[in-house]
Give the backbone structure.
Amino acid sequence: MKGIVIDMAMLPALFDDTVMSDVFSDPFFTQPVPSHFSAMMAPTTMTTDIKESDKGYDLTIDMPGFSKDDISVSVDGGYLTVSGEQSGKHDEKGEDGKFLRRERYAGSCSRSYYVGEAVTSKDVTAHYENGTLHLLVPKKVESSVEQGEKVQIEG
């Protein structure tokens, strides 16, 4: 019976980071992200600026690519939840009617902010314009009950 000879220099080190480092150093992983992929991911970021005033909090949320109908704002259990859902389809046909490209995407995003048990959906005002959602949430509201209703968005 012949023995198997293994050259240890040919095997990656299994007990340190070089195995995964070797995989992710492949040129495939170092390519820049195509612009259409980053455009599809951009709507899911929901970057938020929160400014405090004497009356309450002004939230400015970036939601580019969404329409007013794609956005939902609600207050339930002391949490203000902003969510957006969108889908799109791009079809391009050649002169003979055969598809040269068909792409579809769908995505949703959601963020929640604690606003306190006293705040209801009727206390929050919302305005959406040019890809930016503006919310005004009062600091202290003496009203109660009616949780889980949606906030009407103007714009």
In short: The longest strand covers residues 99-114.
